[in-house]
């Protein structure tokens, strides 16, 4: 079956892209091999016209113009806040796929630390509402890993989606909630010049640890800076490069962490000598050359809920370039690094252990060579075509969810009725009396209607 599919993101889709837009782009690319696909962004900045692959159309629009761009789509794959800004998307009979690879509410708990308590709670409440709307309506849901799947199964159960109908169709619920992680391109990046070393004026022998991706409040670049301060005393030829300090989406609120990084690096006398900040986001088509000009990837975070359920797409960028990664323990990709020996895993907030791990992978050639070989072995299993296989299978025969006809919002609020017959009948009569009045109760009794109250 050739389906008409709209892939929708509210992130910037253009020359410079962050994770949500990159994921939407690759979803559209994978699905367009078999379907009629349109990739749409509701961001104020974007691209329009044919995509680079030539297999799908892309467009930028406003929330008001979204109806025209979505058009006659049979299936809509959406992420983020797009449906909240256009609630009509969640009504009607079209098939909805909700991409929940990013636990937005857990990020929001960290991102809002500098807000007042009331504003922080309001931001979290809004994000939970946005996610609940998608969880209640979606016919198929995507997550990034098995740990995330446990999180979202809990959400689904609390909202009444783990019910007799969905469980009866599939007791594993994988036909409702599937693991589709972030992926990497099937072809490796191509070296083009030396954008890091030449661009920053580094000695060609300098060993570079690269922080790929944004500097966000829920991450821990401060420990990375402190580790480099320790390491440069033993290994003067070391540099830490932050790939992008300014988020490409102007709609993303400025975060405190970039300023904190600059301040700490300046206080330690590292800026411009051992720590370097690239202010502008690296263009998507040029990211491969930047990755190849580094030696080791770096991803650190503190211990909190966001870290436990995260799937750091920046780590995959380094695997794509064939580099080992030093990462903080506690998330799915850190577990993969440790299990397959793709680099090193360190405890959170420990600059001494981090400095030692960086020293090994930057300056110990046998250890580095072993990690590089392991990355090359594992890399083919992480490509987009493998990551999105469950989504492609679903879109080959898209369908509404097994419980699509249920009034799910009312199901969540429905009181639990007693199990025994007499109290159950009494409770049901009370519900009917409150909802339909005395005449409604009499009409149901006369009509012999024996269904449970909705």
Report on this structure.
- It contains 20 helices and 14 strands.
- It is α/β, with parallel strands linked by helices and 454 residues long.
- It has 3 domains: 4-183 and 386-396, Rossmann fold (3-Layer(aba) Sandwich); 197-382, 3-Layer(aba) Sandwich (Rossmann fold), CATH 3.40.50; 415-447, no CATH class.
- An 8-stranded mixed sheet has the order 3-4-2-1-5-6-7-8, with helices on both faces.
- Helix 4 packs antiparallel against helix 5 (117-137), helix 9 packs across helix 15 and helix 15 packs across helix 16.
Question: What topology emerges from the helices and strands here?
Answer:
Layout: E1 4-9, H1 19-31, E2 36-41, E3 49-50, E4 57-60, H2 66-70, E5 75-78, H3 82-85, E6 95-99, H4 104-111, H5 117-137, E7 140-143, H6 146-158, H7 164-169, E8 177-179, H8 197-200, E9 207-211, H9 221-234, E10 238-242, H10 257-267, E11 275-277, H11 287-292, E12 296-299, H12 305-309, H13 313-320, E13 325-328, H14 332-340, E14 343-346, H15 351-363, H16 365-378, H17 384-387, H18 389-396, H19 408-413, H20 421-447
Parallel strand pairs: 1-2, 1-5, 2-4, 5-6, 6-7, 7-8, 9-10, 9-12, 10-11, 12-13, 13-14
Antiparallel strand pairs: 3-4
Helix pairs in contact: 4-5, 9-10, 9-15, 15-16
């Amino acid at each position: 079956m050739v389906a008409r599919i709209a892939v929708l993101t509210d992130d910037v889709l253009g020359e410079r892209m962050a994770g949500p837009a990159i994921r939407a782009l690759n979803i559209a690319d994978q699905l367009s091999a078999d379907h009629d696909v349109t990739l749409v962004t509701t961001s104020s900045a974007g691209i329009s016209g044919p995509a680079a692959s030539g297999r799908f159309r892309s467009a930028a629009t406003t929330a008001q113009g979204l109806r025209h761009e979505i058009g006659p789509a049979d299936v809509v794959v959406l992420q983020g806040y797009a449906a909240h800004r256009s609630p009509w998307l969640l009504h009607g009979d079209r098939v909805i796929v909700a991409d929940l690879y990013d636990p937005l509410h857990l990020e929001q708990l960290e991102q809002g630390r500098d807000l007042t308590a009331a504003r922080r709670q309001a931001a979290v409440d809004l994000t939970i509402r946005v996610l609940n709307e998608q969880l209640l309506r979606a016919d198929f849901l995507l997550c990034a890993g098995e740990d995330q799947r446990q999180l979202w199964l809990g959400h689904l159960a609390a909202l009444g989606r783990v019910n007799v109908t969905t469980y009866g169709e599939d007791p594993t619920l994988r036909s409702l909630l599937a693991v589709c992680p972030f992926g990497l391109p099937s072809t490796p990046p191509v070296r083009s010049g030396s954008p890091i070393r030449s661009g920053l004026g580094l000695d060609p022998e300098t060993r570079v640890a690269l922080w790929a991706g944004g500097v966000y409040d829920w991450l821990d670049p401060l420990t990375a800076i402190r580790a480099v301060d320790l390491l440069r005393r033993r290994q003067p030829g070391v540099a830490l490069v932050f790939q992008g300090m300014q988020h490409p989406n102007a709609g993303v609120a400025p975060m405190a962490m970039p300023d904190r990084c600059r301040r700490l690096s300046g206080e330690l006398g590292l800026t411009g000598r051992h720590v370097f900040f690239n202010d502008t986001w690296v263009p998507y088509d040029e990211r491969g050359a930047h990755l190849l000009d580094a030696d080791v990837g770096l991803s650190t975070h503190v211990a909190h809920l966001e870290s436990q359920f995260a799937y750091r797409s920046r780590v995959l960028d380094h695997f794509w370039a064939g580099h080992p990664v030093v990462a903080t323990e506690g998330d799915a990709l850190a577990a993969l690094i440790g299990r397959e020996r793709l680099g090193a895993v360190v405890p959170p907030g420990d600059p001494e252990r981090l400095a030692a791990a960086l020293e090994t992978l930057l300056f110990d050639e046998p250890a580095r060579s072993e990690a590089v070989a392991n990355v090359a072995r594992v890399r083919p299993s992480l490509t987009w075509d493998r990551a999105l296989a469950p989504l492609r299978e679903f879109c080959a025969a898209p369908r509404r969810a097994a419980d699509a006809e249920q009034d799910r919002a009312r199901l969540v609020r429905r009181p639990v009725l007693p199990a025994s017959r007499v109290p159950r009948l009494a409770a049901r009569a009370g519900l009917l009396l409150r909802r339909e009045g005395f005449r409604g109760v009499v009409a149901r009794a006369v009509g012999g209607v024996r269904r449970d109250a909705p």
